[in-house]
Amino acid sequence: MSGAEDSRANGADPTRTVALVTGASAGIGEEFAEQLAKKGHDLIVVARSADRLETLAARLRTANRIAVDVLPADLTKPEDLRSVERRIEGLPRLDLLVNNAGFGTMGRFATLDADQEEAEIRLNVVALVRLTRAALPAMLRHDRGAVINVSSLAGFQAGPFNATYAATKAYVTSFTESLGEELRGTRLRVQALCPGFTRTEFQDRAGIDVSDLPDLAWMSAASVVESSLAALDRGELVHVPGVTNRLVAGLVRVTPRTVLRRIVGSTMRTRVG
Ligand code: NAP
Q1: Pairing with 16, which of 50, 68, 252, 266 sits 20 to 30 Å away (CA)?
Q2: Is the CB of 28 under 6 A from ligand 1?
């Protein structure tokens, strides 16, 4: 590659596929970037930590001979979000959008910081909706492309002491499922990815102590992403990765919501004190 312009994942070369991943500086998003790079996609990586993104980009360019563009943005800020939307709208092609950036808050809702709760909705919901809206028109024009929206098992039921997070993820799953149906008859694919406990920085950032959870409850980010990409190839609209998670999802489906919220509520109550 010669010069900055040539190294951009700008979709101008029709033989190259391009994927944009939000929250690519850590955890599941970083793993999406790794696995998509190995599959030969050029990448646009988005998160707040420019330094972490640059380190990732340098590694992926060298290891996979792909173009990686770093787009630092705080997606809770309207001006940053607009700039990512504009970038998407200006791309000649975008093959895959992974709306992965997200965070959770935990505690009694009445005591949580209102601005943080709003930021959680801005990132987990508003950014995801706006970036999807920015990507779809060109995908529909070309009748080609896919969107993976990272949701959570937490969205399958109410989440006492985790109320805003669970509600944002219920939104993501419902929104994505609706889109999937709207897009029936096209070649576009969408997926709501619903992981359970995954070893990333997520729990630390949320201040959740999960040290007592058994190994069986956990998946690696690598397995989650591998499972998601395989499910996307199969056209699975709502994907729960891992046997344990699928078992939990199955139990949730057959348990009355009144019972579920009591179970979740009493488990979480002991954690928040
Ligand atoms: P993580 O390791 O904490 O990574 C979160 C990513 O989001 C980071 O790259 C972070 O980068 C980015 N991010 C956070 N705030 C941002 C902002 N305002 N603007 C732009 N990017 C931002 O967590 P993770 O587990 O990989 O989480 C990824 C997704 O998986 C989330 O949507 C989460 O809800 C979902 N999920 C996680 C689990 C789990 O157990 N880990 C389970 C179910 C679902 P910067 O800090 O550099 O901005």
Answers
A1: 50
A2: yes
Distance 143 CA to ligand 1 centre (A): 30
Topology of domain 3-272 in CATH is Rossmann fold (3.40.50)
Whether 169 is catalytic is: yes
26 Cα nearest atom in ligand 1: 9
Pick the residue whose CA is nearest to atom 8 on ligand 1: 23
165 catalytic? Reply is yes
Question: What would the mean pLDDT of 103-113 be, rounded to a whole number?
Answer: 97
* Confidence tier at 7 by pLDDT (50, 70, 90): low
Ligand 1: which atom is nearest the Cα of residue 119? 18
Q: Ligand 1, atom 31: nearest CA belongs to which residue?
A: 102
**How much is the pTM?**
0.96
Domain extent listing, the chain: 3-272
**148: which strand partners?**
98, 191
Question: How far, CA to CA in Å, does 115 sit from each of 78, 85, 220?
Answer: 15, 23, 31
Q: What angle do CA 182, 103, 139 make, to 5 degrees?
A: 30
pLDDT in tens, 140-185: 999 999 999 999 999 999 999 999 999 999 999 999 999 999 999 9
Q: Is the CB of 241 under 6 A from ligand 1?
A: no
> Closest Cα to residue 199, out of 186, 187, 208?
208
